């Protein structure tokens, strides 16, 4: 709810504001007598004159597209390389190993990771 305006608050305002507030309180529009509002004139939307793109505009747009495609190809190449590295690492785990001082259970010469895993599972059968 709005609170009534106290008379001393109105006295602190400049004279122009006091007159304006008095007109509003009296129900009058600023200026002369209240006038009926006029609807705004319809605005006719005009299409801006567009000139056809020049050859240079096409070349610039194509260069931007080529730059974006290059970034996408580079990102794709990085993903393919990372997947290849991961597959190579997994593949090496199952190839015969000649390391004798590898951590874990003793693995015989020429055994694979999967064979060593199978042997360690058999050794831990009491769990």
Task: List key phrases describing it.
single chain, 127 residues, mainly alpha, 4 helices, 53% helix, 0% strand, elongated
Form type: elongated
Element-level helix/strand string: HHHH
Strand content: under 5%
Class from secondary-structure proportions: mainly alpha
Number of helices: 4
Give a brief description.
The chain is mostly helical and 127 residues long. It is built from four helices and no strands. The longest helix has 39 residues, at 55-93.
Summarize the structure in words.
- The protein is elongated and about 105 Å long.
- The protein has helices at residues 7-11, 15-26, 55-93, 113-123.
- 53% of the residues lie in helices and 0% in strands.
- The chain has 4 helices and no strands.
- With 127 residues, the protein is an all-alpha fold.
- The model has no long low-confidence stretch (mean pLDDT 76).
Fold topology:
Layout: H1 7-11, H2 15-26, H3 55-93, H4 113-123
């Amino acid at each position: 709810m709005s609170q009534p305006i106290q008379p001393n608050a109105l006295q602190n305002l400049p004279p122009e504001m006091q007159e304006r507030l008095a007109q509003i309180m009296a129900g009058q529009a600023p200026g002369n007598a209240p006038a009926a509002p006029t609807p705004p004139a319809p605005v006719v939307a005009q299409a801006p004159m567009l000139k056809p793109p020049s050859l240079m505009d096409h070349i610039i747009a194509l260069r931007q597209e080529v730059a974006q495609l290059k970034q996408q190809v580079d990102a794709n190449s990085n993903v393919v390389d990372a997947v290849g590295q991961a597959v190579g690492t997994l593949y090496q785990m199952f190839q015969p190993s000649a390391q004798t001082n590898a951590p874990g259970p003793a693995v015989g010469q020429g055994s694979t990771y999967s064979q060593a895993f199978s042997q360690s599972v058999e050794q831990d059968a009491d769990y």
